[in-house]
Each structure stands twice: as structure tokens, then as C-alpha cells.
Design goal:
Chain A: InterPro entries: AAA+_ATPase (IPR003593), ABC_transporter-like_ATP-bd (IPR003439), ABC_transporter-like_CS (IPR017871), P-loop_NTPase (IPR027417). Chain A: Pfam families: ABC_tran. Chain A: GO terms for molecular function: ATP binding; ATP hydrolysis activity. By secondary structure, chain A is of the alpha/beta class. Chain A is built from 9 helices and 10 strands. In chain A, strand 1 and strand 2 form a beta hairpin. In chain B, helix 4 runs parallel beside helix 8, helix 4 runs antiparallel to helix 9 and helix 8 packs antiparallel against helix 9. Chain B has one domain. Chain B is mainly α. In chain B, 87% of the residues lie in helices and 0% in strands. The chains are: A alpha/beta, B mainly alpha. At the A-B interface, strand 6 of A face helix 5 of B. The complex binds adenosine-5'-triphosphate and magnesium ion (MG). The site of magnesium ion has 4 residues of chain A, from helix 1.
Chain lengths: 256, 265
């Protein structure tokens, strides 16, 4: 393990008001691997992703990409950093004033001809199992699952070297969820991307992960290869993977 | 006595807190404006976005601005006529009307009406984009949100407001003219001649300058509050209200400053 990780988080901390969300996250993601982060709702998984993307400024700690510190980038350097990533947002974040194909081709070179961009958008829609007939619809005319797939097509359209998937399968039926999981595996294998996926869906973990990390109480409490999640004696992982109400993870049921 | 002193300290610290909070907000707004303007002058430009905003802000505001000016112009003539008659000065109606409308009422009422329409709509649209992560998404899609969302709105508002106010001035004077000739027995040729005679270039220029400044604040307040909104639908609602109220205040305040600077000496 002397190789420089693609992404390295070192002691990452972030709090909102009095709420300490990330309390020193350490995580390495190697080039070309598919890392999956699991963890309960509200543990800061999405915040961690947004810190890496430079959308949220961390309070302390370091973020390195290819060994280069990218924690406090600004202006053009930040834009160049962000251009290396594709991001599937948890809620899709499609532009509701634009048609589906305009959304999907958004990050492509806009000086290209309209017909050309539209064709590229339709290619990418096909990758996520959507036909050309949705190209001219508005996002609000699609079902939740279709919106998610359009958002996925948009994230991968410019062929970024790193793609983040924030809960790619939530809200999809099991079959479509499997299609999306296959797609992530395919992207990592064929396009040689580095993938970071956040999920609660154990089927997804088993299918797409090379390695798994578990975030709890603002820290990575366990990480290891995919096979490790069933063998580990770690009580947090055991409770999460098996979906038990009893265990070291306490859920605040009444918003306490 | 101690109670009073204690209260006084409390009041002073409340005022101090308010002033500091206000200054901090002004600082944030200035930074926001500087960043947006910096991005407005550098490429890449988004001409399609600019045209869209010109249409939304300018064209669709014409009816409401025109109607406001028409009604206010006529009402103004009626009141000036009543007031003027008491001093046997009813002949001043055309001159007072045109100066009142071009210098103050045209730009101020036009600005307030457009602010009511546009600042709120901008805050609601950008606020929704913020809470649904569309603004974050822009950054990950090789697009600077300031350049794509804010700059076209600011530029469009500054370009379009002078045209809207010009229309408001003309329609306002026309409304007064119709009432004066139709109801108050003024001779139409005389009325128009006096109007043109008393209208000075500096009146029109100051009117246009005010309009451009108001346009800037209308877009700035809408964008600033929308861009910073947090916390779901309620947050967007609050941003919308704040955008309109602060746009109103900035319009009235900057109007006073420009009036004093241009005409007060
Ligand atoms: N912009 C923000 N301002 C204030 N608090 C925030 C902000 N973003 C996130 N938080 C808080 O940080 C905590 C972690 O949020 P985050 O969205 O990262 O959770 P998550 O792990 O992704 O959960 P889920 O699995 O439900 O998506 C939450 O308690 C949330 O309220
Ligand atoms: Mg999340």
C-alpha cells in the first residue's frame, strides 16, 4: 500500500451550529476502486461527499486528491477540481426548467451543435435504460426512479474520472436498483473510474463494493473488503448489515 | 436607578447588535454583488440566459408598470389641480406633473412594482434551486452558479429598468394629460407645450440613472436572498419576503440619496 490513494481524507471535521457532524473522518480511496460508505441516516455521509467536492468547507482536516491538497481551493482551481467529478445527488437535483436532454448534456461542451448534444444525451440515457422518448420531457413529468436515472446519466455524461453516487438505488424497484448497480460496476470496470457510493441498501453494497467503510458518530468505525462485512466482529457493522434494532447504534426515534 | 441603567444598557446592546448585524449583512451583500459583477464581465457568457431574463423582467412587467403609471399620473393631476386652484395657480399643473412623475414617481413606483414582481420571483426560484441542490449540481457540472444564474439577472435588470421607467414616465404624463383635458378643461396643445417646456434633460437623465440603480437592487436582493436560503419550503418563503422588503428599502433609500445629490444643491 505504498501507492498514493486517489482520494485521502485526513481528520475531516465539520459542524453546523452546535451539531458536530464529522468528528475526524479518515478514509483512503484507491484509483479505480469502488468504495461504498454505509451508515445511518443523518450521520454525515452526504456532508462528507460535499466536502470532497468543495461544496461545503470543512472546519478542520485535509482532503487530498492524487496526493495534492485540495481542501481550500478557490476560483479556477476549485472549478478545475470539481470538473474531475461526476455527482449523483441524493435528490437528483435535476434542473426543472430544462428538458431531460438539456439536463443530460449540461456539462458537455455547449459550443457543439444542438443535434449533436441531443444525440450524446440520448446515448447516455440509453446507458441508464431510458429511451429517446423521454428526451424532450421535463424532469417534473418523470417518476422518481426515472428522475434518478436521468440524474445518473447527467453525472456520467462528461466521463469524469471520479463519480460519487449518493444513494443511487433509493426509491427504485428492486429490478431497476439492480440495473443501476450493474451500471456502476460496469463504469468502474470499463471506464476505469473511481467510484464512491453512499447507500443503505445491502444488496447494492454486495454488488458494487470493492471495499466498504462504515461511518458512525462522525468517524469511520470500520473499513475493509466487501467480504469482510459478514465476517467482521465489529458490532456496529454487524448491527447495520443485519438490520437489528438492538446494538451499539442508538437511533433517535423521537428526534432527541 | 439601577433598573433604569440596566434597561438602558439592554437597549443599547440591542441597538448595537442590530447595527452590527446590519453592517455584517451589508458586507455579505457587497461581497455577493462584487463576485456576481466580476463574473458578469468575464467569459463564458450565457446570452440565452440574459435574453430570457430580459424577457421575464422587462417584457412581462410592462402591463403592471404601465397601469400603475397611468392611474398615478391621472390622480396626481387631479390633486395638483385642486391644490393649485386655491392659489390661482392651476396653470402650473402640467409643469408640476411632469417634474413629479419623471423625477420621482415614475422611477420609484416603477421600481416598487417591478421589485414586487421580480425580486420575489427570483428569490423563490433561486431558493428552490438551492434547497433542491440544483445550485450545488451546477458546480459539479462545470458551470459557475454566479455566472450562470446571478450575472444574467443583474445585467438584465440594469438594462431593462430604464426602458420600463421611460415607458412609465410617458404613460404617467399621458394619464395626467387625458384627465386634464378630458375633465379639467385644459387645452391639449397648451398642456403638451408647457409639459415639454418644463421637462429638462437632467430630469430624464436622473430618472434613467435611478431606474438603473433600482434595477440593480431589485435583482441583487432577489438573488442574494434566494441564493442563501436554507431549510426547505419555509426557508424559501422567508427568502422571498426578505427579498421584497429589502428591495423596497434599498429603492426608497437610494432614491432619496440620488434626489439629494442631483437636485438638493
Ligand atoms: N447545510 C447544512 N446546514 C445545517 N445542517 C446541515 C447541513 N447539511 C447537513 N446538515 C446536518 O448534518 C447532518 C448530516 O447530514 P447528511 O445529509 O450528511 O446525512 P446523511 O448521512 O447523508 O443522511 P441520509 O442517509 O439520511 O442521507 C444532519 O443532521 C443534517 O441536519
Ligand atoms: Mg445523505
Amino acid at each position: 500500500m505504498t501507492e498514493i490513494p486517489k482520494i485521502a481524507l485526513k481528520g475531516l471535521r465539520k459542524r453546523f451550529g452546535s451539531k458536530q457532524v464529522l468528528q475526524g473522518v479518515d478514509l483512503n480511496i484507491c484509483a479505480g476502486e469502488s468504495m461504498v460508505v454505509i451508515g445511518g441516516s443523518g450521520t454525515g455521509k452526504s456532508v462528507m461527499m460535499k466536502c470532497i467536492l468543495g461544496l461545503i468547507a470543512p472546519d478542520a482536516g485535509r482532503i487530498e486528491v492524487d496526493g495534492v491538497d485540495v481542501t481550500h481551493l478557490k476560483g479556477r482551481a476549485l472549478a478545475a477540481h470539481q470538473a474531475r467529478f461526476g455527482m449523483l445527488f441524493q435528490g437528483g437535483a435535476l434542473f426543472d426548467s430544462l428538458s431531460v436532454w438539456r439536463n443530460v448534456s449540461f456539462a458537455l461542451d455547449q459550443s457543439r451543435k444542438g443535434a449533436d448534444l441531443r444525440a450524446a444525451a440520448i446515448d447516455n440515457l440509453a446507458r441508464v435504460g431510458l429511451g429517446a422518448e423521454v428526451a424532450d420531457l421535463r424532469p417534473s413529468e418523470l417518476s422518481g426512479g426515472m428522475q434518478k436515472r436521468v440524474a445518473l446519466a447527467r453525472a456520467i455524461a462528461p466521463r469524469p474520472e471520479i463519480v460519487f453516487f449518493d444513494e443511487p438505488t433509493t426509491g427504485l424497484d428492486p429490478i431497476m436498483a439492480d440495473v443501476i448497480n450493474d451500471l456502476i460496476v460496469e463504469l468502474v470496470r470499463d471506464l476505469k473510474i473511481t467510484a464512491l457510493t453512499i447507500t443503505h441498501d445491502m444488496a447494492s453494497v454486495r454488488k458494487v463494493a470493492d471495499r466498504v467503510a462504515m461511518l458512525y458518530a462522525g468517524r469511520i468505525v470500520w473499513h475493509g473488503p466487501r467480504e469482510g462485512i459478514d465476517a467482521t466482529g465489529n458490532p456496529y457493522v454487524y448491527q447495520f448489515v443485519n438490520g437489528r434494532a438492538e446494538g451499539p447504534i442508538k437511533m433517535a426515534v423521537r428526534g432527541g | 436607578m439601577r433598573g433604569i441603567a440596566h434597561d438602558a444598557v439592554g437597549v443599547l446592546s440591542a441597538i448595537g447588535g442590530f447595527v452590527i448585524g446590519g453592517l455584517a449583512a451589508i458586507g455579505r451583500m457587497s461581497k455577493f454583488a462584487a463576485r456576481a459583477l466580476g463574473h458578469a464581465v468575464l467569459p463564458p457568457y450565457y446570452p440565452a440566459r440574459l435574453l430570457e431574463q430580459i424577457l421575464v423582467i422587462g417584457y412581462f412587467s410592462l402591463p403592471v408598470v404601465g397601469l400603475t403609471a397611468l392611474f398615478i399620473g391621472s390622480a396626481l393631476v387631479q390633486q395638483i389641480y385642486i391644490g393649485g386652484s386655491r392659489f390661482n395657480a392651476a396653470s402650473t399643473v402640467p409643469a408640476v406633473t411632469v417634474i413629479g412623475i419623471v423625477r420621482e414617481l415614475g422611477p420609484v413606483l416603477g421600481g416598487l412594482m417591478v421589485a414586487g414582481r421580480v425580486s420575489s420571483a427570483m428569490a423563490a426560484e433561486l431558493g428552490t434551486m438551492r434547497v433542491t441542490e440544483q445550485i450545488d449540481a451546477l458546480a459539479t457540472l462545470r458551470t459557475d452558479p454566479y455566472r450562470y444564474l446571478i450575472a444574467p439577472r443583474l445585467v438584465a435588470a440594469v438594462l431593462v429598468m430604464p426602458i420600463l421607467v421611460l415607458v412609465a414616465n410617458i404613460v404617467g404624463v399621458l394619464g395626467g394629460f387625458l384627465l386634464a383635458t378630458g375633465r379639467l378643461g385644459f387645452n391639449s396643445a397648451n398642456y403638451l407645450n408647457t409639459t415639454m417646456e418644463y421637462l429638462k434633460v437632467e430630469d430624464v437623465v436622473s430618472s434613467m440613472v435611478k431606474a438603473a440603480v433600482f434595477g440593480f437592487f431589485i435583482a441583487l436582493m432577489g438573488c442574494y436572498h434566494g441564493f442563501r436560503s436554507t431549510g426547505g419550503a419555509a426557508g424559501v418563503g422567508k427568502a422571498t419576503t426578505n427579498a421584497v422588503v429589502s428591495a423596497f428599502i434599498m429603492i426608497l433609500l437610494s432614491n432619496l440619496v440620488i434626489t439629494v445629490l442631483v437636485f438638493g444643491t
